[in-house]
Amino acid sequence: MLAKLVYKKRPRPLLFYPKVLTFHKMTPEFSFSSTNYSPRRFDRLLAFFSERSIKLTPLEKTVTEKGERALAVTFDDGYGHLAHYLPPLMERFDFRPTIFVITGFIGRANSWDYTYFIRPTPHLDRKQIRVLADNGVTFGSHGHRHRDMTACSPAVLKAELVDSKKALEDIIGREVTALSYPFGRFNRRVLEEARTAGYRLAFTMDFPETADENMSLGRIPVYGFDSRLAVFQKIFRGPLYEMEKLKSTFTHRLAAGTIILNKIRSRRKLAETDKSL
Question: What is the pTM of this model?
């Protein structure tokens, strides 16, 4: 009953900001991650959008036009199962998503993520990326090693941005102009380096606002616990928007666990290197 009332009630006047959804994993298998949204639920969500005349548009067009009911779909990390589940959904609902790839893990398991120790998940390989690109998927960079770019040295930051861009361009044979900051973290230094590297659009994990600039565009995260009602509220800022935003923000903060894990592993590698000298 609540869902019907909230769906039917017209939301507050819409702000004209780019409406971009962020997904990560999309597998029917049980996942220990809050970021998995199963293909079946994804199918139902897209059908829900279609029934309400919410148009799925390519990422760059969504950002440029900022249409009231235009929506772009993005996937961070570039997991291998997308090669199987995305194409039939793309054909059925006639949409073209964007996948942000961690180029240092192309064709490899997600050892950068804490869930790797519970259930490793492979990333897209080069062939899968080419096939998806040929079928209309747009690709962007998610860095080379999924590092927190705000903590990178100048040399490492430049490599993260430039190497990942070039690696993707070599695979798909076209220019890569979009970036998703790993963990959504950026600062002015990262933003300027990204622009210098040749990116024209860059995305965070903050909720979008009308004042967002092209190199710090917010997105709307979708988690495994989100119902269609919850997603609807986050997109169109209905009466439950603040509650849903709080839930999403708290969940995103848990990504700090992966950042800490990576720092510990880096220190161990340095210690091992010192011992061998």
Answer: 0.89
Domain boundaries, the chain: 15-276
> Tens-of-pLDDT digits for all 277 residues of the chain?
444 545 444 444 445 789 999 999 999 988 778 899 999 999 999 999 999 999 999 999 999 887 778 899 999 999 999 999 999 999 999 999 999 999 999 999 999 988 888 889 999 999 999 999 999 999 999 999 999 999 999 999 999 999 999 999 999 999 999 999 999 999 999 999 999 999 999 999 999 998 899 999 999 999 999 999 999 999 999 999 999 999 999 998 876 656 665 655 555 543 443 344 3
**8 A C-beta contact, residue 55 and residue 71:** yes
Q: What is the CATH number of domain 15-276?
A: 3.20.20.370
Residue 35 is given by DSSP the state T
